[in-house]
Amino acid sequence: AQSVTQPDIHITVSEGASLELRCNYSYGATPYLFWYVQSPGQGLQLLLKYFSGDTLVQGIKGFEAEFKRSQSSFNLRKPSVHWSDAAEYFCAVGDSNYQLIWGAGTKLIIKP
Amino acid sequence: KAGVTQTPRYLIKTRGQQVTLSCSPISGHRSVSWYQQTPGQGLQFLFEYFSETQRNKGNFPGRFSGRQFSNSRSEMNVSTLELGDSALYLCASSVEGPHYGYTFGSGTRLTVV
């Protein structure tokens, strides 16, 4: 069955430090991959998406993600986090039926 | 460019009542999806409408229904509310479907008492 795993429920990072959020998926074909961010009490915002081509994808707010087919991963990275990055981050995979399969989310906490 | 607008923003209803939530997508977006978000269950897909037709449906009981109008605006209805229906209901629109990337509204916070 298709699935998306975000192994970390919470991650705490110091402001200014680098960040990597993990996402692993199980899907037979070439996936459509997404990262979304949700601030408290708000809807989700698309950070970046991968369909094909260059496996390193640049997104908004200084985020990037790398698609690694051999590892079935699509990890999100940022070189230096800001306090405003504190939020919940969701990874998603698009299947062949025009549906998204969502990870459970990773809550990012920023230490001052 | 206006975003996705959901109304109302907050709602308190009594068990057994019914409720209708509204979503106005971004102009030109033909796909509208609805999600239920709760702390325990996370994001759960309710349904997707594309050009007034329901294209996909999640695993929710028949009490949950929706529709899309010719201007792409969408409504979802929940009948016979239960306490467990308390959640943040999110609407998301896309040009052609979720594979193009969603734009989400801020949600409607429904509390059932």
Attribute tags:
A: mainly beta, four-stranded antiparallel beta sheet, globular, B: 113 residues, mainly beta, seven-stranded mixed beta sheet, 0% helix
Annotation, overall tally of beta strands of chain B: 11
Overall 3D geometry of chain A?
A: globular
Number of helices of chain A: 0
Largest sheet of chain B: 7 strands, mixed
Q: What order do the SSEs of chain B take from the amino end to the carboxyl end, as H and E?
A: EEEEEEEEEEE
The class by helix and strand makeup of chain A works out as mainly beta
* Beta-strand percentage range of chain A: over 45%
Helix amount of chain B: under 10%
Number of strands of chain A: 12
Structural class of chain B: mainly beta
* Span of the ends, CA to CA of chain A: 41 Å
Q: Can you give the mean pLDDT of chain B?
A: 95
Explained architecture:
The complex is a heterodimer of chains A (112) and B (113). In chain A, strands 2, 5, 6, 10, 11 and 12 form a 6-stranded mixed sheet that branches. Chain A has a 4-stranded antiparallel sheet with strand order 3-9-8-7, with no helix packed on it. Chain A has 112 residues and is mainly β. In chain A, 0% of the residues lie in helices and 53% in strands. With 113 residues, chain B is mostly beta strands. Chain B is built from no helices and 11 strands. Chain B has strands at residues 5-7, 10-13, 19-24, 31-38, 42-50, 53-57, 64-68, 74-78, 87-94, 103-104, 108-112. In chain B, strands 2, 4, 5, 6, 9, 10 and 11 form a 7-stranded mixed sheet that branches. In chain B, a hairpin with a 2-residue loop joins strand 5 and strand 6. Chain B is globular, with a radius of gyration of 13 Å. The model of chain B has no long low-confidence stretch (mean pLDDT 95).
